[in-house]
């Protein structure tokens, strides 16, 4: 098979996919014209860098969820149960989400309501390990929406969010459009993770893009430089996280509902350790509840083996370390069941 016929087959495949998707009329016309150009290039010019750029652009246009949405689950009791299943406490966050679902239920079927219900843009602010990032997937399960995460830590250019013009070599869309493609839905939950941790030199430009993303008066026509065509983000439910608000521009904060994530008390950590972390860790380590039981008097030692920690990262690492040691001893044939007490716990806790 000659390279030319292979290109023609590729163009035919793109045409079939283009015919099967619904695009905005202007973009449909533009993409169709580009496809005709691609056909001529395949027939007469053969493969070239320009051919690759045009084909790559058309592929991106076809793969984006221009008209694909998911149906929200608006059962308040079910949503609360799912949020409680994954997170202990965090009542202010949960209550705000339940309120939002209640408003959606009341407005979704009203014929006189011409506007979308504007979602709250929550920003969870707290120390490392307080559960900020993990709230995104839990919210996705509760609402039955698709989920995508955009990491801001170390981001050094607004182009990371907005993409780069196709005139540049190796240009691609920005992280916002990539998140939508991964989610394959126009109304996903997108977690803007650690928005306070962008580089200092790019902070102003990135905060400017964030304002556009989060402002309902602007985000219905978000422009990615690579696509060069507005994408409607008004149905996206954005959730942001930050360690603190000092490095978040005032204009961005004005568009956020700041919710402080409190540090966990030792009593709360014990509950989280027993009811959330331990069952998950046992499963991940190939163990069952029959392999390991822990005496109630031991939990304060597990919660604070080396000192105070605001979040639960140390708690998770400690329990994971215990599970690994138990797994090893089971494989070595020492025992099948272990009961941890104040007398033997020192053999399983970190000593550094």
TrEMBL record:
Domain AAA+ ATPase: 118-262
Name of protein: Lon protease
Claim: Protease is one of the keywords in the record: yes
GO molecular function terms listed in the Swiss-Prot or TrEMBL record: ATP binding; ATP hydrolysis activity; ATP-dependent peptidase activity; serine-type endopeptidase activity
Keyword Protease: yes
Pfam family, one: AAA
An individual GO BP term: protein quality control for misfolded or incompletely synthesized proteins
PANTHER family (UniProt xref): LON PROTEASE (PTHR43718), LON PROTEASE HOMOLOG, MITOCHONDRIAL (PTHR43718:SF2)
Cross-referenced InterPro entries: AAA+_ATPase, ATPase_AAA_core, Lon_lid, Lon_Prtase, P-loop_NTPase
Record's keyword terms, sorted: Hydrolase, Protease
């Amino acid at each position: 098979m000659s390279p030319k016929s292979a290109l023609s087959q590729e163009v035919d495949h793109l045409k079939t996919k283009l015919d099967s998707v619904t695009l905005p009329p202007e973009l449909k016309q533009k993409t169709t014209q580009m496809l005709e150009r691609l056909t001529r290039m395949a027939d007469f010019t053969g493969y070239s860098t320009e051919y690759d750029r045009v084909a790559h652009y058309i592929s991106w246009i076809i793969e984006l969820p221009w008209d694909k949405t998911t149906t929200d689950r608006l059962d308040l009791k079910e949503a609360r149960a799912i949020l409680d299943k994954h997170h202990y406490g965090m009542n202010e966050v949960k209550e705000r989400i339940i309120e939002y679902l209640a408003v959606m239920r009341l407005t979704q079927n009203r014929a006189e309501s011409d506007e979308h219900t504007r979602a709250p843009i929550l920003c969870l602010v707290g120390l490392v390990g307080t559960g900020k990032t993990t709230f995104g997937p839990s919210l996705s399960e509760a609402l039955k929406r698709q989920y995508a995460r955009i990491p801001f830590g170390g981001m050094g250019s607004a182009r990371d969010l907005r993409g780069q013009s196709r005139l540049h070599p190796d240009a691609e869309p920005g992280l916002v459009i990539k998140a939508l493609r991964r989610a394959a839905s126009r109304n996903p939950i997108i977690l803007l993770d650690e928005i306070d941790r962008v580089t200092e030199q790019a902070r102003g430009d990135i905060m400017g893009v964030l304002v556009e993303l989060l402002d309902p008066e602007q985000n219905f026509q978000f422009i990615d430089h690579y696509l060069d065509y507005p994408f409607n983000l008004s149905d996206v439910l954005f959730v942001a996280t930050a360690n603190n608000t000092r490095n978040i521009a005032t204009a961005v904060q004005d568009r956020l509902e700041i919710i402080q994530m409190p540090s966990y008390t030792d009593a709360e950590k014990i509950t989280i350790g027993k009811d959330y972390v331990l069952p998950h860790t046992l499963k991940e380590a190939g163990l069952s509840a029959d392999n390991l039981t822990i005496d109630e008097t031991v939990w304060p030692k597990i919660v604070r083996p080396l000192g105070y920690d605001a979040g639960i990262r140390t708690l998770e690492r400690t329990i994971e370390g215990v599970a690994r040691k138990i797994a090893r001893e089971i494989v070595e044939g020492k025992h099948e069941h272990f009961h941890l007490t104040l007398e033997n716990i020192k053999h399983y806790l970190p000593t550094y």
